């Protein structure tokens, strides 16, 4: 009987997933791609990024994402291009809906912590981001 109880507890622990609502507080900020896992399982590591993603979300779960290019001076270059976003909790998932003048698409947040962000797009490519840390040249 103890054996069955242990199996049941193990199953419950591993089947419980984090509440996607808790991801929202971690999305704001500067992120750089660490790795992409393609839909076929192939992985591509990003050892260097010349651009980073900046997410800004307000209390109504609306905001934007912008691509930034870090400078050695600690500032960023950017274009006027911006992707408007809306976070939506639906079907036990946190989805990001993007809108530009040219397109609309959706991505799903799989994980968001203080240090990592994991997003899957409609092509089933999984993007693993790490929190951006500026280069310390001193």
Automatic annotation (TrEMBL):
<protein>
    <recommendedName>
        <fullName>Lipocalin-like domain-containing protein</fullName>
    </recommendedName>
</protein>
<keyword id="KW-0732">Signal</keyword>
<feature type="signal peptide">
    <location>
        <begin position="1"/>
        <end position="18"/>
    </location>
</feature>
């Amino acid at each position: 009987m103890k054996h069955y109880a242990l199996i049941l507890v193990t199953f419950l622990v591993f089947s419980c997933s984090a509440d996607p609502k808790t991801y929202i507080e971690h999305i704001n900020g500067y992120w750089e791609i660490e790795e992409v896992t393609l839909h076929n399982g192939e992985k591509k590591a990003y050892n260097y990024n010349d651009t980073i993603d900046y997410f800004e979300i307000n209390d109504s779960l609306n905001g934007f994402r912008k691509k930034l290019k870090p400078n050695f001076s600690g500032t960023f270059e950017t274009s006027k291009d911006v992707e408007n976003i809306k976070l939506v909790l639906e079907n036990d998932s946190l989805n990001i809906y993007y809108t530009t003048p040219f397109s609309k698409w959706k991505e799903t947040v799989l994980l968001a912590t203080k240090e990592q962000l994991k997003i899957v797009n409609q092509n089933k490519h999984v993007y693993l981001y790490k929190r951006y840390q500026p280069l310390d040249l001193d």
